[in-house]
Amino acid sequence: EVQEIIEYKEWSIKNKTGIGKFMELKGKVLPSICIEGDVVFPSIIPQYEELIDEMMARAKSPELAEKLRAARDKGFEFDKVTENLAKAGAGQNTRNDS
C-alpha cells in the first residue's frame, strides 16, 4: 500500500511554522502538493495515477519505484476512501505549532 512506503505531512498555513514551510517550498497557491521538495501540483488535487507517476519519477531507488508502480497498477480503492485517509493520517499530521 502507498501509505506504507511514503511519508506524508501536512502543514497548517494558519501559523508561523506552516507559513515558513510554504515559503521554503516556494509555494504560490493553495492547495499545493510537493514531492521530494518540488512543488509538483500547484492549485490542483491530482488524479491517483498522476500522483503515483510523479512519485515514481522521484523515487530514490528502483525498488521504491517498482513498489509505487505496483500500487498504481492495483489502482485506487474508492470504496475504502475513509479507511485510506485514516491510514495516511490525513488531518492528523497537520502541524499546529507556531
Describe the model.
It is a single chain. This protein is mainly alpha-helical and 98 residues long. It has one domain (2-75). It contains four helices and two strands; from the N terminus they run H-E-E-H-H-H. The protein has helices at residues 16-24, 48-57, 62-74, 81-88, and strands spanning 32-35, 38-42. Strands 1-2 form a two-stranded antiparallel sheet. Strand 1 and strand 2 (38-42) form a beta hairpin. It is globular, with a radius of gyration of 14 Å. It starts with 15 loop residues before the first helix and ends in a 10-residue tail after the last helix.
Widest β-sheet, arrangement of strands: 1-2
Helix content class: 40-55%
Q: What is the rounded Rg?
A: 14 Å
Q: How many individual domains?
A: 1
| Outline | globular
User: What is the string of SSEs from the N terminus onward?
Assistant: HEEHHH
- Helix/strand structural class: mainly alpha
Q: What are the low-pLDDT stretches, counting only 5+ consecutive residues below 50?
A: none
Number of strands: 2
Number of helices: 4
Question: What distance lies between the first and last C-alpha atoms, to the nearest angstrom?
Answer: 33 Å
Strand content: 5-15%
- The overall average pLDDT, rounded, is 87
